[in-house]
């Protein structure tokens, strides 16, 4: 069942970029994007819109936050709902006092961003494992927060503190390794780790792109763009940096690897990408899958895939698909996906088999007819250890 782009409230990709989800005005829809685009799950069961959505590709567990525009909604903008699609009911609800700006999930933790804090919630113990406080002015953009990929043994979290003019790097398991560093520009609008968590891509003042080396603790590369940058992504091999701008441009840049380069804050103006493309303007989520194919999902009903040769810096193939009934694709951008067609996704076997997250949550709620309502009564209260604020490099 295809959906109307006007009903799309949010987009989300799984960590392995094999599936993406769409939050709508009355539910959510999940798509398999490994071969073509196939709708595998459609839930129109809510009286509220889905403003934020997060899920794992191999689980029946979905996490969402309701839309604040809906009246008399059971699921408001202050509540995180953990939904079990096998039981077709919530198994846990987390009520906060302030509006939720962003959620993220991996197999171990749920990350919830509010106006004043970032909660790292342990599923198994059903409690806040860490609570990172930040300055509320840091969240003007609502998306300036990132975590490392799940294969990183010591996961990191990054967010800005505008009062101190630093970017804070926090570790989940070893808080003693926390540190911060000053950044170029005034207002941070986007953060993104590379796959290994050794670099951090930063967009500041909408057009300034910086790559920070977290090992050598310096600025690796900087440049500006003519249009406001909405998001950026690193390739799996760290050879490429991709930016997507508000004008619909998708820009592929080569990252310079020179061990003898001194890390100085020298900003290059408007460098040209080795490959540039334009897609319909909208809100985007993007990322590289395991085959090093770059995927862009647009809120306007499109998904575009780029196969890039990171050695020769050439675009080998581009495919565009529509997941919306009202979206249209230019003929020159469309490649027939019949050769890539896959069988219908088996929801029961793929979304609910052998998943630690589902087991852990079911252990919390022994009674299948009841779900847990978990209320966090105050912001700024938790078991976070105090960190050394002097551990800052300039």
From TrEMBL:
Q: Which family does it belong to?
A: Belongs to the WD repeat PROPPIN family.
Xref: PANTHER family? WD-REPEAT PROTEIN INTERACTING WITH PHOSPHOINOSIDES WIPI -RELATED (PTHR11227)
**Which InterPro entries does the annotation name?**
PROPPIN (IPR048720), WD40/YVTN_repeat-like_dom_sf (IPR015943), WD40_repeat_dom_sf (IPR036322), WD40_rpt (IPR001680)
- Species this chain originates from: Anaeramoeba flamelloides
What keywords does the record list, in alphabetical order?
Answer: Repeat, WD repeat
TM ranges are: none
User: Record's SMART domains?
Assistant: WD40
- Ranges of Basic and acidic residues compositional bias? 380-394
Keyword check for Cytoplasm: no
Q: Mind telling me what this protein is named?
A: Wd-repeat protein interacting with phosphoinosides wipi -related
| GO CC terms | cytoplasm
* Residues covered by region (Disordered): 372-394
């Amino acid at each position: 069942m295809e959906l109307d782009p006007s009903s799309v409230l949010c987009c989300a990709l799984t960590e392995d970029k094999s599936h993406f989800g769409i939050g709508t005005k009355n539910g959510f829809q999940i798509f398999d994007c490994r071969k073509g685009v196939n709708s595998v799950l459609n839930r129109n069961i809510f009286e509220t819109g889905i403003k934020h959505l997060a899920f794992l590709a191999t689980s029946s567990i979905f996490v969402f936050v309701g839309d604040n525009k809906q009246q008399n909604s059971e699921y408001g903008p202050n509540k995180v709902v953990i939904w079990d699609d096998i039981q077709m009911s919530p198994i846990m609800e987390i009520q906060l006092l302030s509006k939720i700006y962003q959620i993220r999930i991996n197999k171990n933790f749920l990350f919830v961003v509010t106006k004043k804090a970032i909660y790292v919630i342990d599923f198994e113990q059903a409690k806040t494992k860490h609570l990172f406080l930040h300055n509320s002015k840091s969240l003007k953009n609502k998306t300036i927060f990132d975590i490392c990929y799940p294969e990183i043994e010591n996961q990191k979290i990054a967010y800005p503190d505008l009062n101190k003019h630093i970017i804070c790097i926090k570790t989940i398991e070893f808080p003693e390794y926390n540190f911060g560093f000053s950044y170029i520009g005034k207002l941070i609008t986007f953060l993104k780790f590379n796959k290994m968590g050794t670099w951090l891509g930063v967009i500041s003042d909408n057009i300034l792109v910086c790559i920070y080396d977290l090992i050598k603790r310096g600025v690796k590369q900087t440049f500006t763009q003519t249009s406001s940058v909405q998001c950026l992504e690193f390739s799996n091999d760290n050879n490429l940096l991709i930016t997507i701008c508000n004008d619909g441009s998708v820009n592929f840049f080569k990252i310079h690897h020179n061990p003898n380069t001194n890390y100085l804050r020298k900003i290059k103006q408007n460098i040209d990408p080795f490959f540039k493309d334009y897609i319909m303007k909208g809100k985007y989520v993007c990322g590289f899958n395991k085959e090093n194919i770059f995927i862009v999902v647009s809120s306007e009903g499109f998904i575009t895939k780029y196969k890039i040769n990171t050695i020769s810096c050439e675009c080998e193939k581009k495919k565009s698909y529509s997941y919306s009934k009202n979206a249209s694709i230019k003929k020159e951008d469309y490649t027939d996906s019949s050769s890539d067609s896959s069988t219908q996704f088996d929801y029961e076997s793929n979304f609910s088999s052998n998943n630690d997250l589902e087991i852990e949550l079911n252990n919390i709620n022994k009674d299948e007819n009841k779900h847990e309502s978990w209320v966090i009564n105050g912001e700024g209260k938790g078991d976070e250890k105090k960190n050394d604020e002097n551990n800052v490099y300039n």
